[in-house]
Design a protein that fits this description.
There is one protein chain. This protein is mostly helical. It is 73% helix and 0% strand. Helix 3 packs parallel to helix 10 and helix 4 packs antiparallel against helix 5. The longest helix is centred in the last third of the chain and has 27 residues. The model has no long low-confidence stretch (mean pLDDT 88).
Length: 258
Amino acid sequence: MTWNVLKWVAIAAMLIDHTAAVLGGWLPPLCSGLMRDVGRMAFPIFAYGIAQGCVYTHSARRYLGRLLLFAVLSEIPYRLALRAGSQAFGLFNVFFTLLAGAACCQIVKFCRSKGRRWAWAAVAPVAAIVLLCEVLGTDYGGFGVLCVLLPYLFWESKPARIIALGSVVAFLYVVVSHFQGFSYPLWWMENPSALGGMLRQTLFALAGVGIIALYNGQPGSKKGKWFFYVFYPAHLLALWLLRAAADLTIFYLEGGFS
């Protein structure tokens, strides 16, 4: 597969996921749940793409600036569509997570360029960024940042970067996403419904990693280079408007203010 094909697979999975998240009340629960599970394929592919971008970009400043621009532009559509009513402070949308991951990669690149003595100097700022994403509640949190950073760290070996990404993705869904306290971290093992949900999410997320293994290293068509950047906030805004229109229609059909 070329990168262009992988990108479209991720975009399709993301759209399926967000459609269920925003319009799930209009769908059968089983269908909505399956759509959310399919969506787990998207983030590993996007995270890998950011790591790849950090390896090959000719201008780190422009690359980070582009991610920052769309992170800011996407925050309001993200809150409207997926965090409606949330008053919590945070930088929630996935672009902030991808931006943080890219920033960590650039810190590592800078420290490596200064020689072995400086290599470990990257640990403190990278750890601070990972922790900050957990505190601010960005999409996928600090482990989402690691999904970008680990493939970058092992970029010289494709099997190593796939294994690294797969490991952090599995840990994210098996442990972190279902964490309810250190006293009983694997509580879902005694809850068949939670266990089934965890297994489905993990398998679909790892399927996303598996698809990356089919990547042939070729970019494919370069048309629509900016499509994902624009599509992310645009589709969230469109889904929110669709839900708002549907709610308004039902409101008036049920008598409105009368």
